[in-house]
Specification:
346 residues, Rossmann fold, 40% helix, 16% strand, four-stranded parallel sheet, 13 helices, 10 strands, alpha/beta, globular, binds pyridoxal-5'-phosphate, 2 domains, six-stranded mixed sheet
Length: 346
């Protein structure tokens, strides 16, 4: 097949997968005078919000003639992005290799292999990025490089998470709360709300050890903690290039125990298990409502489901092993407006 013929088929295959808006679940929680809605990104075919980014990375590569028949998709990630890469590799008939930290949970490795992918295990964890670039350069690999390319491939005007959300909300929400991994979700929300002249503000819910809260609070885009986050998908040891400090109205630091308590609280209320990062967003929404007096509706972004975490974040024995006590935070969630003070004194 000529390259042009293959490219046409590949673009048609990507476009043939209809991308319906992910559901907005209304009224999943209520704190003080605010009601919380949930944008359910677990509803994507690959089960998480990286579905949007990986699709856009591949569209961009195809229209720029950077991706060829027989290529191997390569990405460095220990997380949800790997499932999206696997989904699209299969749609395009390509192989894929995921470069991940050696201590990645065996269930995650098994999930990637079940999709037909190869796992390359690397230590130390921060070596995954250079290793992915090297592997891609050696063979007929295509390095997706999501952290560096997220901004250039993402359309903030149309057909994105923010445009969907405004169309779905009964009235423009006062806040949208998301986590930040690459930072592209937060930046796209903020850009689109400006573009659409919506009054909605953007808050990033940030876990322990992440550079986003201290970097935002100090205004220093070079801020780095060098420490890995314990909440999968969100929180980074440095400010990533797609995260724009000036576009985010607030970054709310959330203790990990509060994230996990909120994740379980949400599961009890909705009957659906979401991942720990969704708990981080729910706790931050509570902070906005109870400490800054946010009213109206607050939308939280649920980045993935919780199926993968039944033996870890949802397991009381796992939490005990890790020395994580969620008791006080659970109590706080059951008794509105009280509980441990996690609001920064700065
Ligand atoms: C990546 C990720 C996020 C954050 O999205 P970015 O757009 O990369 O900032 C949130 N939740 C989960 C579960 C993720 O995997």
């Amino acid at each position: 097949m000529t390259h042009a013929a293959w490219r046409r088929r590949a673009i048609a295959a990507l476009r043939s997968e209809p991308a319906p808006a992910t559901p907005l679940r209304l009224g999943v929680a209520r704190f003080s005078d605010a009601v919380v809605h949930l944008k359910d990104e677990a509803a994507h075919p690959s089960g998480n919000l990286k579905h949007r980014l990986v699709r856009d990375l591949l569209f961009h590569a195809l229209v720029n003639d950077e991706l060829h028949e027989g290529a191997i998709l390569v990405e460095a990630t220990g997380g949800a992005a790997a499932l999206a890469v696997g989904h699209f590799a299969s749609l395009l008939g390509l192989g894929f290799t995921i470069v991940m930290p050696a201590r990645t949970h065996p269930a995650q490795i098994a999930a990637i292999e079940a999709l037909g992918g190869r796992c390359e295990l690397v230590d130390p964890p921060l070596a995954i990025y250079a290793t992915a670039a090297r592997i891609a350069a050696e063979g007929n690999g295509f390095h997706l490089d999501m952290f560096n390319r997220a901004e250039v491939v993402t359309d903030w005007r149309t057909a994105n998470i923010a445009s969907e959300l405004l169309a779905q909300c009964p009235a423009a929400p006062t806040w949208v709360v998301c986590g930040a991994g690459t930072g592209i979700t937060a930046a796209t929300l903020a850009r689109h709300f400006r573009y659409a002249n919506a009054p909605t503000r953007v808050a990033v819910a940030d876990p322990e050890h992440s550079a986003y809260f201290p970097g935002w609070a100090s205004g220093d885009p070079g801020y780095a903690t060098g420490m890995p986050s314990r909440i999968p998908g969100i929180g980074r040891p440095r400010i990533e290039p797609a995260f724009r400090i000036a576009l985010v109205d607030r970054v709310v630091p959330v203790p990990d125990a509060a994230s996990i308590a909120a994740m379980r609280h949400l599961a009890k209320r909705t009957g659906t298990c979401y991942g720990p990062a969704t708990g981080t967003c729910l706790w931050a929404a509570r902070e906005l409502a109870t400490r800054t007096g946010a009213t109206g509706s607050i939308v939280i972004v649920a980045g993935e489901g919780g199926e993968r975490y039944q033996d870890t974040y949802y397991s009381p024995t796992w939490l005990e092993d890790k020395g994580i006590d969620i008791g006080p935070w659970c109590k706080a969630l059951d008794t509105p407006s009280t509980g441990p003070d996690s609001w920064p004194s700065a």
